[in-house]
Write a structure and sequence with these properties.
seven-stranded mixed beta sheet, alpha+beta, 2 domains, six-stranded mixed beta sheet, 28% helix, single chain, globular
């Protein structure tokens, strides 16, 4: 009997060791990009190179991409196709597209979630409406999905935003209404959730009320968002923020606005479950684009383009080829650079691996018993 007990203990110890060996940490890259009135008829090769081109071992290569200004369902399918056929692509992209109401024309709020099917499953979309009392306030899409193999079975709820542009009182009031709708919706979410708000926020500083609505502490903080790179201030035309400016890489306005962001719920920085890869809540460097504390990047912005078009020749982050593609994708009308961040999560071992592990460990225990006898 003692020998049997010892063998059982050994067996369970080996099982635990084996499960630990099979378990692994997976990394997911999510990005956001206002693709500037994309109709599906041009800029295809530029998008492919901007996304999958490589420079010094670096590439955008997201696993999930939230896009703004995709003009139609057919444009969304065309963009999906160019993702799947780009050199270096894994070829497993799919898309969810929706048209929403709002200001600034019919395409201002058309949004899409492009995702790799090997990384994401069970995606769905919900329309989040802004108060009708605020004229012209835009709707927002919330995309819910799970990560393939995620050990904690979390639901990601990501708001894909395109807030009202401009700096007038009316513009700010509309952004505030849009922010309030998202915050209220996020506050109402329950269960094992991870929340994010990404997209083109069109604001000029963190002193505006829409920022406070997203990030402020209230009696209900279920839907509170944080800037993972803790870079607050007056961003527009401020050289101190040159590494996080996202607009405009191609037009006459130059790179001087932080319109495009990825805000995250606090659970992505609490040390459990899926986590942002980086020092959550630590301010981004003001001296280098290559901040070792963060995976968060404005793809293509090496900090040398302040108030000017994006640096092409000698671009230290992406090189001249990708930089030119980013300028081309932005068009001359005033475009945007993509923003991305990485996330780490634990993966559950595949059932087939567990069966093989169990069979191998059982054989080992039996072999030991046979040797002892």
């Amino acid at each position: 009997m003692p020998g049997t007990v010892k063998e059982m203990r050994l067996g369970w110890s080996l099982v635990l060791v084996g499960v630990a060996a099979l378990s692994s940490a997976e990394t997911l890259r999510m990005g956001t990009w206002n693709v500037t009135n994309y109709t599906g008829t041009n800029r295809g090769s530029a998008f492919q190179n901007a996304i999958y081109g490589t420079y010094q071992g670096r590439s955008f290569a997201p696993d999930v991409l939230f896009a703004q200004e995709i003009e139609s369902p057919s444009a969304a399918q065309t963009f999906r196709g160019l993702l799947n056929t780009a050199a270096g692509s894994p070829g497993d992209w799919n898309v969810i597209f929706n048209t929403l109401t709002g200001t600034s024309g019919t395409n201002a709020n058309n949004q899409a979630m492009f995702y790799r099917t090997s990384k994401v499953h069970s995606p769905s979309v919900t329309v989040v409406a802004s108060p009708s009392s605020t004229a012209g306030a835009r709707q927002t899409l919330r995309f819910d999905f799970q990560l393939a193999g995620n050990a904690t079975a979390e639901i990601f709820s990501v708001y894909n935003l395109h807030l009202k542009a401009g700096n007038t009182t009316d513009d700010q009031n509309r952004r505030q209404a849009e922010a309030t709708a998202v915050r209220n919706n996020a506050n109402s979410l329950t269960g094992n959730r991870q929340i994010m708000a990404v997209g083109d926020f069109n604001w000029q500083s963190s002193s505006q009320t829409a920022w406070t609505t997203f990030t402020g502490s209230t009696s209900n903080n279920n839907g509170r968002f944080f800037d993972p790179i803790a870079t607050t201030g007056s961003w527009t035309e401020n050289n101190n923020f040159r590494f996080v400016h996202t607009q405009d890489p191609s037009g006459s306005g130059g790179m001087d606005d932080r319109y495009d962001l990825m805000l995250m719920g606090g659970k992505l920085g609490d040390g459990t479950g899926t986590e942002y890869v980086g020092a959550f809540g630590t301010a981004y460097s003001t001296t280098t684009w290559n901040d070792p504390n963060h995976s968060y990047r404005v793809w293509g912005n090496d900090g040398t383009s302040f108030n000017d078009t994006l640096t092409i020749s000698g671009n230290a982050m992406v090189g001249s080829s990708i930089a030119q593609s980013l300028v081309t994708t932005a068009t001359v009308n005033g475009g945007h650079l993509p923003v991305f961040a990485d996330f780490r999560y634990d993966v559950v071992p595949e059932p087939a691996s567990m069966v093989a592990l169990g069979a191998g460990l059982l054989a080992l225990v039996r072999r030991r018993r046979s040797t002892r006898s």
